[in-house]
Amino acid sequence: MLKLNAEANNTGAGRDAIVTIKASNGDTKQIKVSQPDNQNLEAKFARVSPKLLTNNGNPLLDFMFTADPTAIEYNGRVYVYATNDNQQYEKVGKNGHNSAESIRALVMMSSADMVNWTYHGLINTAVLAPWNASSWAPSIESRMEADGKTHFYMYYSNNAFGTAMLTATSPVGPWKDPLGKNLVDRSVPGVDVDVPYDPGVVIDGQGTGWLVFGAGTPKTKYMPDNARIVKLGADMISLAGSISKIPAPYFNEASDLNYINGTWVYSYCTNWDERTVWPYSNIAKPTACNISYMTSKTPLDPNSWQYRDNYFRNPGENVGDKIGPLTNNHSHLFKFQGKWYFAYHAMYLQDYFNTAGGFRNVGIEEATVDEGNGVNIPMINGTFKGPSQTHLLNPFVVQQAETTAGTSGHVQFDTVGTVGNMVAKGQIDKQCLMVRGADFSKQIPSKFEARVKGTGRIDVYVNNLKGPALVSLMCDAKDWTTLSKQIELNIPKGVGNIYFVFYGEGFLFDEWKFY
């Protein structure tokens, strides 16, 4: 009898090898020797994300920094776009400061269920609009046009100089710069604010576009007089008419605009100043750097705007969960599948990335909006939990590896193939992707399949990272290939989370599916 022992390596990664045994008579026999994976995966991934080992939904992406969200619904999915804080983080490092000047890309992501998010990559404004300085704080709308296509209109801050825009006929692009200059800046007649940025766009019930923007040196602390609104041209890339004022008390920045049941709803971030002046006896003073809102039926008439209340306090006030320190505030109120949601940012990931540089992440909360009586928005609190899953994930159809509800934090993705498609990139050490709420209630899987490339391995777990993997795939392919393997272990019927633990430097993971 020949006994072979294999010791675990220093990472605990499993190994397979073929051993050839040659007898004295010249006969040979090959046997496969496996070194088991004895690593405690839950311990390894215990402090990489607030999401991976929990059912928390915030932040939406836990492997990069994002901020200043906007959102739009299209074909059963919600698409969220954000400032690429990660670009500044990569520039200055964990000991640096998020001064944002190096950010020249916007982040794209989408979801069909509000907990599993597909990362679609970046909108590279440095290439699309090389004339501009930085790209921050996007706002998006869409409209069916005469060509029968849905057109997407993206407005964003060109640093502090003005508001620029991009257009596309798909929510993930390709994007183009139709103007080659700012749509709004101080060269435009009527733009009388120092910082005409932080755009918010909406298309009203008659199909007309509206744009809000503004910031800068305040005229007074109580009434800074820097919030502006203008009607957009029929082409959505021009202005139609004069620019009007919105008298927003303690205004700072972060304009946002909704059109709800015949009412224009303007949201903004208040300033940090002491509230020494407050003319309302029936409305509480807005707290520092919160989100407040105003309403109007005739938005170009400054006197028509009514201050209503504040409805989201600064995340650093720890109202709700302790999701980070005080920060600036930027938000977007939107509707998806008939339900209201509130997107914002907080410093969810700084502790996990070992930085205190002011790098932010987008989160979402469910919102209650009374659409009658001139619109009323009750207070919303920031949480790690986030929104509920709207429907279960189907593991028996092709799913993208870049769709995640939690990761091991420093997962990397590459662009491959069509615009908006990403693939997960392996590393020497183990990485993990997780999706939530997979529906195994009607079928127990018998086979697993994945589209992969390079040399690496995927171990698949259901419900938790304990015990042996449900199935493992080994890949050694120079070209894209689809590998499959029968599943010998059983899982209980029901709903569970799926964990993909993968590794291999240069290994790429694109799609997966159960049978």
From TrEMBL:
Specify the superkingdom.
Bacteria
Q: Name one Pfam family in it.
A: Glyco_hydro_43
> What is the protein name given in its UniProt record?
Family 43 glycosylhydrolase
Stated family: Belongs to the glycosyl hydrolase 43 family.
| GO BP of this protein | xylan catabolic process
Output the InterPro entries linked to this UniProt entry. Answer: Galactose-bd-like_sf (IPR008979), Glyco_hydro_43 (IPR006710), Glyco_hydro_beta-prop_sf (IPR023296), Glycosyl_Hydrlase_43_Enz (IPR052176)
Any one Gene Ontology molecular-function term assigned to this protein's record: hydrolase activity, hydrolyzing O-glycosyl compounds
UniProtKB keywords: Carbohydrate metabolism, Glycosidase, Hydrolase, Polysaccharide degradation, Xylan degradation
Tell me which Gene3D superfamilies the record gives. Answer: Galactose-binding domain-like, Glycosyl hydrolase domain, family 43
